Amino acid sequence: MPISKIYLDMDGVICDFEKKYKELYQLQPREAEKHKQFDRLFSDFIKTRQFTQLAPMPGTWDGISFLKNTGIPVEILSSTAREEYYDEISSQKIEWLNKFGIDFKTNFVPGKRHKWKFATPDSIIIDDTESVISDWNKAGGIGIHHRNWNETSAILSLCIAKA
Q1: DSSP characters for 85-153?
Q2: Cα–Cα distance between 56 and 47 in angstroms, integer?
Q3: CA 138, CA 156: separation in Å to the nearest integer?
């Protein structure tokens, strides 16, 4: 069955949330969680509109170019962390995409745990979170655990060739 759609995560795949977070708070997000500071700092991150200021991840432009050359429709599938942040984070992420000229259709969910609902046997998700990949695969889709664009592009090429 040919691949009908590729879903692309944002944070950790095309934009660097962790780099900006550490730059601002001198902590990785996981460290902040351990010290029970993440919620307060994340709220500040949103209020100061940091999702509009993220740097692209290394290899993003090669990855975007590769995706466009597949001829397969690509859509953004990104989390807004929680329902209460949905409007603010999704608008900041749309602003980021517009700033960099990325015009893929956008889909936002109020938490990564909802991404699997988009899975179909002929769809692929590219995401850096293992739980998202696991849930996607369990739902019948094809998940690619993103670590870098060279590896992701190679795996995606194999998936397309097999289809």
Answers
A1: GHHHHHHHHHHHHHHTT---EEEEESSGGGGGGG--TTEEEEES-HHHHHHHHHTT-EEEE-S-HHHHH
A2: 21
A3: 19
**Which residue do the tokens 């969910």 mark?**
109
* C-alpha Rg value of the chain to the nearest Å: 16
Kindly give the confidence (pLDDT) of every residue in the chain, 163 residues in length, as a single tens digit, with 9 standing for 90 and above: 899 999 999 999 999 999 999 999 998 888 878 878 888 999 999 999 999 999 999 999 999 999 999 999 999 999 999 999 999 999 999 999 999 999 999 999 999 999 999 999 999 999 999 999 999 999 999 999 999 999 999 999 999 998 7
Cβ neighbourhood burial of 128 (10 Å; 0-12, 13-18, 19+): buried
Closest CA to 108 of 141, 85, 131: 85
Q: Are strands 105-109 and 123-127 parallel, antiparallel or unpaired?
A: unpaired
> Which residues touch 49 (CB under 8 Å, ≥6 apart)?
92
C-alpha 86/C-alpha 89 separation (Å) is: 6
